[in-house]
Write a structure and sequence with these properties.
This protein is 61% helix and 0% strand. It has 25 helices and no strands. Helix 5 runs parallel beside helix 21.
Amino acid sequence: LSRPRSNADEARPMKSEMSDHAARWKILFLLEVKPRRVRHFRARHAVGAAGMGLFSPLRRNRNRRGGDSPTRGRLNETSRLLGELDGVASRDPFLDNCKFALILLIGIGHGLQWLLAQEDSRTARGWCAIEGEVGNAGDSDAPRASSWAVLPLRALYIWSNAIAIPMFAMLSGRVSRSLAASCAPEASAERRASMPARIKKTVESLVVPFLTFQLLACLVEASSPALASALAPRPPPSATFAANDGNAVDPQALQFDGCEQVLSNVMNPSNTFNFWTPHLSWYLLALASWRGVLPAAAQMQPGAALALSLALGVGVGISNVGYSAGFFLKFGTMWGNFPYFLAGVFLCGDETYFAMRDDWGTAGRRAGAAAATAATLTACFFGLRSGAMCFDAWQWEAWKSAPYGDYLFVDAETPSGTSEWHLWESVAAPLFRLATYFGSVAVGACFLAIVPRGEIPVVSKMGARTMYGYLLHAPVLLAVLASAGTFAKAGSGPGLSAAAFIAAGALLPVAVTVACMTAPAVWAFRWLCEPEFGSWLWREATEPGTPGSVTSQESGK
């Protein structure tokens, strides 16, 4: 990209290895004659501006002394000029493809969660019971047999629950590295000056959409008690819910006959509007809270910050804060997934990320990752089939919204808080969660290693719109399932057939989530999902020392 330098060039100081004029000529030539080479350059070296723009995208040309090579500087300059010619910032297609794949898993997880809850209610399946076993509640003459597709879909649900939110949290941490860099002790004044804009962006893109969709979800559930009952989580048989008067609810009352009534009395008192029990938009509040804590974590040593986050994630399983008050702010789920976010901030640096994207992008390694993913799904299937895995315990561990004693090492005859929950189990439960942190990262990394690295015309663009897929897929999917009578059919009579279960639990969520990320959906719901507030809400930034600024007023005083 540069011409050979002469002696005169050596004597004349230059800001870079090439002049802007030569670079622009070369880039225009590439755009005109070699468009495929330009696309290859972008795919290999361009990174998204959403959080990674402050970190250099190239790593292979770094010399052994730790500095930047001349080739690296020339390519960085070329990348900048390409952005100027395009008028928009480049994005990393691999990151967008990963987000697209994970948001599809989240949609499938929601669809399966609701339908499997109805299936369990219909068959009266006991806690940790194997598929097809007769439960301990309900009419013995009622049809209880499940279709052959239910057990494989349970395995798919357990696997997707184990990696979807953890990997999405790690990617959120990866794109939040620029925020951590702005808060680090060595951050420049220019980086620190960007903090007000970042705070405004967090409020507009996370806090306001959370409040909006939270209100809409509460209105829908208040107007449709049947839908609220269908979406209510199945409590563990030893749940220690606290009633409004402070007295614990009898665990025997939490059998399936009275499950909906207990949840209604505890979580939705008749004299209150239960706004602070997040429904499906909880991740927005969690991400805003994580970014609010990140400035303090950026001041710490990375190892110490990760250790404290792991202690917090494991510790929320010991406490029932939030759980006893009706899952207030999903306290356990929010901070139970916080270690994944910090791992994305501190561990998913340039070296790790580009090793994952480039070094693991070969056909052989991707085939190995696909084999490991298939083996994990197979292990989940046979674990559930043999009874070695408890579906309900793994589901609550993925949610992380209940104390350990209410879902680990318990069954319907072992109430929480009694002497039957031994000391070794109290020690094993936190160790189990600690193991799930590392296991989820390993299984999730295998899945993301399969994702294509290059730009896919439709998929990569939709991967940049996952906010719309996350916020819109749930209400649209609920409306379709409810209007078609799927919930009613799944919870009564013979239930859903195998084809109907696969279509409603897996294929329909994928179609709905994809539709919510199309350009027409973004155009129609931008005002709701990504609101922008102008000068009527935010104050205009003023230069220090100008009339009206804080420093000017203080100096005047």
